[in-house]
Amino acid sequence: MENPFFKKKKNIKINDILIALNLKTQKINFLLNDIKELGAANKNDITFFNSIKYLELLKKTQSRLVITSKKFTNVVPSKIKVIEVKNVLLAVSYITSLFYPNSINDNSDLDVGRINKNDFKNLKYGKNVLIGKNVKIGRNCSIGHNTIIEKNVSIGNDCNIGNNVIIKNSIIGNNTNILDGAILGKKGFGFFPEKNSNIRYPHIGAVIIGNNVEIGCNNTIDRGSLSNTIIGNGTFLDNQVHVAHNVKIGKNCIITAQVGFAGSSTIGNKVMIGGQAGISGHLVIGDNVKIGGGSGVIKNIPSNTKVMGYPARNIRIFLKDNKINE
Question: Is residue 242 among the annotated active site residues?
Fold first, then answer.
C-alpha cells in the first residue's frame, strides 16, 4: 500500500544508500523499493537489525538486505546481505530521509481551508474549522470549533471530533470520539544526540484509530517512525494520555488519565491501566493485564497478570512489601 501522507522518492539504488552512509559503492547497482521494519520488509526492501530481541523477526524477514552493526553480523542468516554500520538507527534515519525527503519536518498544512458542506454527507461543524485537501469524512459526523484536519486524513462514519483538535497523518474508523484539545499524528520524539547537536529522526508512519474508540481531552498520539501507531477497536483513553511513536494498543482497553506510553511498546487486548502509570519503550504487555495507578512498567508483562508499583510487580508481592514497610 502506498503511503498516503509521505511521497516516496523512486529509483533509489543500493549505491545511493552506500553514498549516503559514506560507504564504498559496488559494481552491481540494483534498485530498492523501500525501507521497512523486519516483519514488513519484502525481498526488494532494505531493513535493519539493532537488538537481539528481534532475532526471530530477522530469521523470518523476506528482505535480502539488512543494516546492522558489527556485533550482530554473525547472527544474520547467510541468505541476507549485510551493510555494516557503527550506528544502526542513525543509518536508518539517513536512508529513510533518502526515500522520503519530506518526512523530517512537521510543518503545518498551509493549504487548509473552510469546509464545503456539499462535499460531505450530513456533516455538522462549528466555527473556524479548517480542512485540508483530499480529506475524507464519513456520514453523520460532527466537528467542534477551531479544529484543523490536515490533508489526506480519513475519518469514518458517525464520528465526533471536539473543539481545538488537530488531526494529521491519521486514519480514523467509525463511531469514534476525539475529545477537545487532542492532537493526533504529529511526529514522534525521535532524535540522536551528537556532540554539538541533536539529529531528528524522520517519521513516515501514520496514526490508525479503530472503530468505537474514545480519545480523551488533550491526548497526544504520535505517528509512527517506520510502522504505524495503532489504537484498537473499542479502546478508551482518558484525558491527558500520551502515546509515543509505533505504540500498538489492542482492543477494548481502558487507559485512565495521564498514562504515558514510550515508543514501540505493544499492549494486548482488554488491558486496564490506572492513572499516571508509565510504560517503558519496546515492551510487550499481554492480554487482560491490569496495571495499578502510578506504576512504572520496565519489563514485559504476561497475559492475565495484575501488577503495581515501581518497578511494577505482581500485585500480591506489592501489597505484601508495602504491608511489611508500614
Answer: no
